[in-house]
Protein 1
Amino acid sequence: MRSVSFFLASLLILFLLLTCIGLFFPARVTISRAVDISASRASVYPFLSDPARWKQWFP
């Protein structure tokens, strides 16, 4: 019985520890990526608007 209560207490402490650590992280994370393309919008738009052609410009 002592080992079961020790196990449950350990789980509770672990849960509380992880909860306290989680409070320091932001609620939302935004990841973005940008690429500068040296081409006109008119020449790039057909590749971006058609997903089947994405492999031609983004390997």
Protein 2
Amino acid sequence: MEFGVANGAAYGVYDPSCLSARTPGCLDEGLLWNDPDTSDGSSSGTGSSVFDFNGDGAAEVVYNDEYFFRVYDGTTGRALFRHRNSSRTRSENPTIADVDDDGDAEIIFSANAEARFLRTE
């Protein structure tokens, strides 16, 4: 079972089956992938959500730090979407829900004192 962890300067997905950096698909022992280019120096209190948006059986990771909103390929860590977004600290945790009851997931995330909606098609 993989799990994601954010700190003030990086976001990583950890996988206990990653026995070493030589394990196929793993970056290092215990580490599936890592993005060292995130920023949350003021609160270090960001969060993430996961959801299989494209129906391929693998979850994408949705993460919002102080400067960017991102969607990562959950298996490889490749950024699928990146949008400049300054946000309030301690409220960067994105939420995924079908808010308009149309059968499609929407992503809800904070942006300063506002809320933005991004429709997934």
Protein 3
Amino acid sequence: MRSEDPAILTKLAHQVEDTLIHTSRREVKIVAEVIGERPAGEISAKHPLVQLAVSCLREQGLPAFLTSGSTDANVPLSQNIPAVVMGITTGGGAHTMDEYVDVEPVTKGMESVARFVERASGG
């Protein structure tokens, strides 16, 4: 379960738990196990780090997509620590047998990340 809003995530977790309890009463045994925590959090598209990431990607001629997702940024964002994740290429078919990445943009993507780190650190 994932959400940008901690309250919605908590509500959803309770709904799932209630459903599991209700279903278990029908002589069906259900075992649920948390296998990973995905804490909720968000950052404004207007935040300087977001704008810097967009700028660094566009300087290399790469698209910048502002989307939410389950990433390594979840933990700091859940603690109100600004964080962004930058993709270094494009692709498609995520989580399918047809998943692919475009190899050609990787070098420019890595350059975008290097520029981001340099500028974010004051260099």
Protein 4
Amino acid sequence: PSSGITIRRLTRSNPFAGLAVGSEISGGVENVLAENLNIFRTIIGIHIKTNTGRGGFIRNITVSDVNLSNAGKGLRIARNVGDHPDDKYDLNALPVVDGLTIKSV
């Protein structure tokens, strides 16, 4: 589980995503604040990722005051990201996304 995460005044470039949450969320990710971010030269600025079969949750995530430049996409919320190590995962284990706030991007 991941909880109580604060990210402030971050400047970064990444070829994949400037800020990503998931896709391995079986233990849950909650209570995340990310603010005053400068993200450049990336495919996706903010990426929220889940996958069927892992369950878990993403909740109470706030992202604000983000400056994006040279980003292919500003925001992507995607399901079915990644793969599973074996065939014993539970197709009924659905992830829950709740309380997602994204503003001033």
